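Appendix B. Chain record.
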Amino acid sequence: MPAAREDVRDFLRREPVPILVEVTGAAGSTPRDTDAWMLVSESSIFGTIGGGQLEYMAIDHARRAIRSGLAAEPMSVPLGPEIGQCCGGRVGLSFKALDRAVTETLIARNDREMAMRPHVYVFGAGHVGDALALALSLAPLRVVLVDTREEELVASTVPHIETCLTAMPEAVVRDAPPGSSFVILTHDHALDFLITAEALKREDAAYVGMIGSKTKRATFRNWLSREARRPELFERLVCPIGGTAVKDKRPPVIAALAAAEIMTAALRWAGNQVSRAQAISR
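Structure tokens predicted for this chain:
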């Protein structure tokens, strides 16, 4: 299987004659909805339609078509005891050989989906920032690792991640698109406060979180009242990130807990925007 962060273009260059499998119908309880698709070649796959026996059946059906050179017929699969999946719904699948037109449409669709991903800005490429960027990079998010130190960004071990070297990280906050999430964990408390205050001014931010203890949280609250003169902004801050239920300060643990929190906020904001747009269009 390809890596989760592999670009569809790389897969198509390596596997030139795959079949596109799309979910065309999803009635009742199903693993994925009609936005799901995957590519199947003779030896590899890209994406997923939900896994389990349904996906194995789809892969086998597509590969038989590849080997025979014949078109693959659509499938309508009832889930449940019949195939050993307990979802209970019914899934419709289509199978398309990739000609030039289908390939161009698929790449354009993939690019649209990528462009719609919520932005998450991780400020600070230290141990926790690196671990957090890695955890978030597996999710359907656009993650940008920001730091004022070039050596830290160069040393980052996160593959396929955007980086931003800047002397003014607060400007990155101001230029971020609506619905962005901001996670602040730099090497300097004063810089943390500056970036966090700028992020809290963004009423369209999906999430603003700062790493820290109870003491740092209280110190920032006083600083926000004194320096920024905006004490009311404090209520929107998540600090510490990742919650307090697990008392573990190891970077990968903090990153895993915070990643779930950030992804929830980012995808909820994006979903709310889609709902508003649909309501307006009715």
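Further analysis of this model is presented in Appendix C.
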